[in-house]
Design a protein that fits this description.
By secondary structure, the protein is α+β, with helices and mostly antiparallel strands. Helices cover 21% and strands 33% of the residues. The strands form three sheets. The protein has a five-stranded antiparallel sheet with strand order 1-2-9-4-7. Strands 8-5-6-11 form a four-stranded mixed sheet, with no helix packed on it. Strands 3-10 form a two-stranded antiparallel sheet. Helix 2 packs antiparallel against helix 3. It is globular. The two termini are 21 Å apart. The relative contact order is 0.24.
């Protein structure tokens, strides 16, 4: 079940005012539309979308991917800028802006996802969900991998097996581009479930 923080994030995303689409972002959306329109399996779609995203990362200023407004953070929590939601609900593009120390809860996703670090560095801890060992017991999370994603890096995944948390452990702002196979404009968030189970952290 989503926490009040996640509900807050969803409400903010629904109320977000869209800023203009740069020429580079518009071209990238066309590339994603072509890939998604092929109707391939989610993991293959994520891989191919990641290939399209990589050349656009790190390009800023005139001819860049994002406007200055789409790079603005929030001192209270990481900020989501909805860049595009396809009219048929098949995919969405968002920019997440992380100020130092900001992080997500442990969560999974409603759909396939591709993430590319546009600026700075993201830290990620991935988890595996273990079922209860005895009747009446509780499931728990086991940390399986810690990853540092520098600028220009791309990763993709599809449920199940997509449980993680993400944070900015650096002294500077981090910005990442996320694509989801869902209408984030309608849903407000890519989070399917927030996990509050015992975890090996």
């Amino acid at each position: 079940m989503a926490t009040s923080t996640e509900h807050h994030a969803a409400a903010r995303a629904r109320a977000a005012t869209r800023t203009r689409t740069t020429e580079r972002l518009g071209a990238f959306i066309e590339e994603v539309r072509d890939v998604v329109g092929r109707g391939l399996p989610p993991d293959v779609t994520a891989y191919l979308v990641g290939e399209k995203l990589a050349p656009h990362l790190g390009v800023s200023g005139d001819g860049g991917l994002l406007t200055p407004e789409q790079c603005e953070g929030d001192p209270e929590r990481y900020r989501q800028h909805l860049l595009h939601a396809e009219t048929d609900g098949s995919f969405s593009v968002v920019a997440l802006v992380w100020l130092p120390g900001q992080c997500t809860a442990v969560h999974d996703h409603v759909s396939w996802c591709v993430t590319g670090v546009h600026q700075g560095e993201e830290h990620e801890r991935r988890y595996r969900l273990l079922p209860a060992e005895a009747p009446g017991g509780s499931a728990r999370l086991v940390a399986t991998e810690d990853v540092v994603n520098p600028a220009g890096s791309v990763c993709g995944f599809a449920p199940p097996g997509d449980i993680h948390r993400v944070w900015n452990a650096c002294d500077d702002k981090a910005i990442s581009i996320h694509l989801y196979g869902a209408d984030i404009g309608r849903l407000g968030s890519s989070v399917r479930r927030v996990y509050e189970l015992p975890a090996d952290r």
